[in-house]
């Protein structure tokens, strides 16, 4: 008898390593913005803005943090925070409001172009394609990667951007939303993710099975929680679970 009906996946650091891409995206879209602004101002015979890369990037981060404090319900909506911070920074450096809005949006386009350039683990596509024959699949992420443009999008008919729901994991809302769209009860679903706090704990508390991707971890695992070192080991856990039923 099949016990599981659905499997939900965290994305960043679960189906690909995220760190290198985040750094390239962070630096790349901001550098792109400053260079594009210099060219735009030169064409209009205007002096370059007094905005340098290092100091500008640090100021951009501070403004994001300030916005997250001012509007706490948006703290996990990273695209929104970045847009507000960039608009504010550009206006503070002399752009008109409308130019600031336009250039902030253009910079975020570049951000999303870079952000989706993740390289899934080589086993990921084959694994998802096999699982999709038997289980319903969903993605639940706190990150602001473009869910339709990410390289594994085709495997996730249901994809939840928790930050944009204003309820980043560990909030149970993105899990419940995914389960509702899949029409599955928590007991027949499994969540797979690398974060103990954001993936494992909320899924387990809802009654889902949870697979924690962690290289190490000696702590005793609560009921329904399994640990693997890499997502490629997932089929073994599923087989073991299915055999018990
Ligand atoms: Mg993750």
Automatic annotation (TrEMBL):
Identification of the protein by name: HAD family hydrolase
UniProt keyword annotations, A-Z: Hydrolase, Magnesium
Transmembrane spans: none
Annotated GO MF terms: hydrolase activity
Cofactor dependence: Mg(2+)
Cited NCBIfam families: HAD-SF-IA-v1, HAD-SF-IA-v3
InterPro entries named in the record: HAD-like_hydrolase, HAD-like_sf, HAD-SF_hydro_IA, HAD_sf
Coiled coil start-end: none
Originating species: Vreelandella alkaliphila
A Pfam match: Hydrolase
Example GO biological process: riboflavin biosynthetic process
């Amino acid at each position: 008898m099949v016990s599981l009906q659905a499997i939900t996946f965290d994305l960043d650091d679960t189906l690909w390593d995220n760190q290198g891409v985040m750094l390239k995206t962070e630096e790349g879209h901001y550098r792109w913005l400053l260079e594009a602004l210099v060219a735009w101002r030169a064409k209009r015979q205007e002096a370059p803005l007094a905005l340098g890369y290092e100091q500008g990037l640090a100021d951009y981060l501070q403004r994001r943090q300030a916005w997250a404090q001012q509007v706490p319900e948006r703290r996990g909506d990273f695209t929104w925070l970045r847009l507000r911070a960039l608009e504010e920074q550009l206006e503070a450096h002399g752009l008109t409001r409308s130019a600031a809005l336009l250039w902030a949006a253009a910079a975020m386009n570049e951000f999303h172009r870079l952000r989706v350039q993740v390289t899934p683990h080589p086993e990921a596509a084959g694994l998802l394609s096999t699982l999709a024959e038997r289980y319903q699949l969903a993605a639940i992420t706190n990150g602001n990667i473009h869910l339709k443009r990410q390289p594994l999008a085709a495997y996730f008919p249901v994809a939840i951007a928790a930050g944009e729901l204003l309820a980043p994991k560990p909030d149970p809302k993105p899990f419940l939303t995914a389960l509702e769209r899949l029409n599955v009860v928590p007991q027949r679903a499994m969540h797979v993710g690398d974060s103990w706090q954001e993936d494992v704990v909320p899924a387990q508390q809802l009654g889902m099975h949870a697979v924690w991707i962690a290289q190490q971890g000696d702590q005793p695992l609560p009921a329904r929680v399994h640990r693997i070192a890499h997502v490629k080991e997932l089929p073994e856990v599923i087989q073991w679970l299915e055999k018990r039923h």
